[in-house]
Amino acid sequence: MSDMQWTVLCTTAEVLPGERHVAWLGDTPVLVVNHDGDFYALEDRCSHEDFELSPGPYDADAGTIECVLHGARFDVRTGEPLCPPAYSAVQTFPVMVQDGLIYVSDPR
Ligand code: FES
């Protein structure tokens, strides 16, 4: 492991390909997505308004998730918004997988 601080969020078995899982990093809800076998973690909160992203449809081909409230879409790999009404990125977290566990680091 590097000298970054890593926290276990969940197991890889909880996030099979094309699936997602929400876990807590302190008081922050984190959405973990398995996109094509790679794991990505982003804050489970739309950057448009304070609303969860996790209930929204996930497009496994595009690697995007759509906010159900007003329809903004985000790239789960980068957190970048792909269409209005969101214009700023969702917070993402570095991910490390080891021995079937998914760790994230908090860059904030
Ligand atoms: S709260 Fe997500 S698009 Fe408005």
From TrEMBL:
Keywords: 2Fe-2S, Dioxygenase, Iron, Iron-sulfur, Metal-binding, Oxidoreductase. The keyword Iron applies. One of its GO terms (molecular function) is metal ion binding. The keyword Iron applies. Pfam families: Rieske. Transmembrane segments: none annotated. CDD domains: Rieske_RO_ferredoxin (cd03528). Residues 7-104 form the Rieske domain. InterPro entries: Rieske_2Fe-2S, Rieske_2Fe-2S_sf. This is 3-phenylpropionate/trans-cinnamate dioxygenase ferredoxin subunit. The lineage of its organism: Bacteria, Pseudomonadati, Pseudomonadota, Gammaproteobacteria, Lysobacterales.
